[in-house]
Amino acid sequence: MQFTKLRLNGFKSFVDPTDLVIADGLTGVVGPNGCGKSNLLEALRWVMGENRPTAMRGAGMEDVIFGGAATRNARNFAEVSLTIDNADRLAPAGFNEEDQIDIIRRITRDAGSAYKLNGKDVRARDVSMLFADASTGAHSPALVRQGQISELINAKPKARRRVLEEAAGISGLYQRRHEAELK
Ligand code: ATP
Ligand code: MG
C-alpha cells in the first residue's frame, strides 16, 4: 500500500483545491513559516480519522474549515481525499482486491463529518479499522508531531506500550475486542 495523493479543499489555509502528489522515495515540503506545511500533515491525519481538535491545533473540529482571510470569505465545508495505491495487494481483508483505495472525509458546518471509501458512504469506524489493520492511521507512530519525541521519552510505560502496539499492527484487534466487550 502506498499513499499517492492527498487533496485538500477548504481545509485550513488550503481554500482552493490543492493536490499533494506523493511520488516514490522521499517527498519534502519546504516553505516559509505559516505557509501550511504542518496543515498538510494534519490533513493526512484528519482524513484517517483524527477526532481530537487539539491534535489539529483547534478548539473544535470545525476549526479545520477555512475560516476566511482579508480577500476570501470563510468556507462552509472542508474536504480531504487520500488516494492509496494497492498494486502490491497488501491492503487489509476486504480491500486487498482493489487496485486503488480512495478515502474522502468532509466536514460541514453544523453537520459534522462524513466519510466515503471508494465512493461508498461509511462510518468513521470503518476508516479507522482499515488503517489500524494496515498498521497506520491518525495515531501512527510514523507521523511525528513537534514535541512528540520528548513526550514519548517522558511517557508512562503503558502509553509507550500503546505506541509499540500500534507499530506492531495489533491495535485493530484491541479496537475490535473493546467493541465486543461493549456489546
Ligand atoms: P512553521 O514553519 O511555522 O511550522 P507551517 O508551514 O507549518 O509553519 P502551518 O502551521 O501549517 O504553517 O500553517 C499555519 C497557517 O494556517 C496560519 O497562517 C493560519 O492562519 C492558517 N490556518 C490555520 N487554520 C486555518 C483556518 N481554519 N482557516 C484559514 N487559515 C487557517
Ligand atoms: Mg509547522
Q: What can be said about this structure in brief?
A:
The protein is an alpha+beta fold and 183 residues long. The chain has five helices and six strands. It has one domain (2-182): P-loop containing nucleotide triphosphate hydrolases (Rossmann fold).
Task: Summarize the helices and strands and which ones pair or pack.
Elements: E1 2-9, E2 18-21, H1 37-47, E3 77-85, E4 100-108, E5 112-117, E6 120-122, H2 124-133, H3 148-154, H4 157-168, H5 171-182
Antiparallel strand pairs: 1-2, 1-3, 3-4, 4-5, 5-6
Helix pairs in contact: 2-5
The protein binds adenosine-5'-triphosphate (ATP) and magnesium ion.
Magnesium ion is lined by residues 37-38.
Structure, explained:
Required for chromosome condensation and partitioning. It comes from Gymnodinialimonas phycosphaerae. This is Chromosome partition protein Smc. With 183 residues, the protein is an alpha+beta fold. The chain is globular. Helices cover 28% and strands 21% of the residues. The protein contains 5 helices and 6 strands, in the order ββαββββαααα. The protein has a 6-stranded antiparallel β-sheet with strand order 2-1-3-4-5-6. The site of adenosine-5'-triphosphate has 14 residues, from helix 1.
